[in-house]
Amino acid sequence: MKVLILITIVALVAAAQAARDWSKIKPKHLRVTPRIPAVAPRIVGGLEAEPHGVAYQAAVISGGAFCGGSIISDNAVLTAAHCVDGADSSEVILGAHKILEDEPDQQIIKSKAIKVHKGWDPYKILNDIAVVILSEKIRID
């Protein structure tokens, strides 16, 4: 019976991952004008990175929105508060270079908790920072 339940859970997780409709997942933009123009833009309007050259980079998907994040521990990712504001959960993709393709190094991990900065103010765009605690440890090869 336990084996049957485990097989069912694995099948449901695999189906959920295969069912991700990327046409409905959009970058979550926040209109912010920097006070100082970027000398060498690397985040918005930058160039494609070398494959796996930014190993700490993560993709955070929450509520149909797609944002970037950075690995800060073996089970946590730092992202912007506006990316996860109001979300109960998120999904984090790690080890990807071309996120729309199935790559052998990709890890997809669900969140266990989302901690948004207590001072996050979406109107003034203050303290726009959050931590996504992952449900399992990141596999670092």
Structure description:
The chain has 141 residues and is α+β, with helices and mostly antiparallel strands. The chain has two helices and seven strands; from the N terminus they run H-E-E-E-E-H-E-E-E. The longest helix has 17 residues, at 2-18. It has a six-stranded antiparallel barrel. Residues 43-141 form the Peptidase S1 domain.
Labels describing this entry:
141 residues, alpha+beta, 6-stranded antiparallel barrel, 2 helices, 15% helix, 28% strand, globular, disordered N terminus, disulfide bond, signal
Give the DSSP E fraction (strand runs of 2 or more residues).
25-35%
SSE order in H/E notation?
HEEEEHEEE
Subunit organisation of the chains = single chain
- Quickly give the structural class: alpha+beta
Task: Estimate the helix proportion, in percent.
Answer: 10-25%
Total helical segments: 2
Kindly summarize this structure in a few lines:
The chain is of the alpha+beta class and 141 residues long. The protein is 15% helix and 28% strand. The chain is built from 2 helices and 7 strands, in the order αββββαβββ.
Topology:
Layout: H1 2-18, E1 26-27, E2 57-62, E3 65-73, E4 76-79, H2 81-84, E5 91-94, E6 107-116, E7 130-134
GO molecular function, one term: serine-type endopeptidase activity
Pfam families: Trypsin
Signal peptide: 1-18
